[in-house]
Amino acid sequence: MDSHVLDTLIARYEAEEGRLLGILSEIQEQEGYIPHDLLLMLSEKLGIRLSRLYSLVTFYSFFSLQPIGEHVITVCMGTACHVKGAEAVLAALEQHLGIEAGATQDGKFSVTTKDNQFTVTIARCFGACSIAPVLSVDGNLFGYATPENLPAILAGYGWREHAD
Ligand code: FES
Fold first, then answer.
1. Residues having CB within 6 Å of any atom of ligand 1
2. Ligand 1 centroid vs 87 CA: distance in angstroms?
């Protein structure tokens, strides 16, 4: 195989991946996430294995397999934030939002509340370690987060405490 043939081969695969990413981006934009049913349909229509589509979707963090809530909360679980109590902040957040305890711990997938108001996800460092622990809501950073000051932060985004 010479260099020219190899270039052709590379271009063919680049084109396929680019095409797939374009289609997946359109789905994400129109649906707000990538529903399983649409991945299945896409797999059948293009003759591409479903596992390949899943590996693409899970590789790129801008794709989501879950519906995304109106507000996205990202909790930093990097070393500095972890040392300063990020785990307690995350646990309190899950409790306030009615998310199953520990559901966001592995950080691979985001978790969205039943009312679709909030999506919680995890980051590894915002580069703001001096104000750890840190979380962001819709891209706005909040430093020195604690379980106690969480309700005030959430209230700024429409959250109200429910009396159980
Ligand atoms: S570790 Fe959390 S901002 Fe750096």
1. 76, 78-81, 125-126, 128-129, 132, 134
2. 13
